[in-house]
Design goal:
Distance between the termini: 10 Å
Strand content: 15-25%
Oligomer: single chain
Largest sheet: 9 strands, mixed
Number of domains: 1
Strand order of the largest sheet: 4-3-5-2-1-6-10-11-9
Radius of gyration: 17 Å
Number of helices: 8
CATH superfamily: Acetylglutamate kinase-like
Structural class: alpha/beta
Length: 237
Amino acid sequence: MVNKQIKRILLKLSGEALLGKKEFGVDPDVLIYLAKEIKSILDLGTQVGIVIGGGNIFRGEGLAQSGIDRVTGDQMGMLATIINALAIQDALERQGLVARVMSALKVNEVCEDYIRRRAIRHLEKGRVTIFSAGTGNPYFTTDSAASLRALEIEADLLIKATRVNGVYSEDPLKNQDASHFETISFDQFISKNLKVMDTTSIVMCKENNLPIRVYDINCDNALLDIVQGKNVGTLIM
């Protein structure tokens, strides 16, 4: 991946990434920041797909722990991702970009149904394509949805945005002595039971030889550095 420009990426954003300084919902300043970061790589000709979580509004697993039926909770979480996707679409359009939201659930009044060939066509036309509602199925995380969509659109790289600069042996926000990995294999990631992404998504990428780059969303121009092939964060491959 070093010194190789990436043609097409899938960017995985957590819902929490949109919180910014807020306790709930979406911070407009974060939306503007993300839109500018994405614009910088679009200007290079990189095609961008996005999968967004919904944890800033609802988390299906958390709702299930509070007594709500797990399937119902996951469906609520999927709808939350659509809200976030629409917010990102608006921010991108305010930067002069063209964006499309595609949903794994049918919500035709506000966005398109997810159709693989149509999604690829959007990307080829330079439209940022935002994939919402996860996989459309309960019990699957948006990390798994990101791996699935990345493979379906034949992305060169799956990029996972986090709050820290890559993958560590432990949570560096809790343990300052945690070791940072510049690169790590899929097998090592799984055997060490690291929690940056869920195991299903990692296995999917491993079996299809799709590399993952994990980086700190708060680092300015990090996305630009990644698509230009620079070593940022951690590479899982």
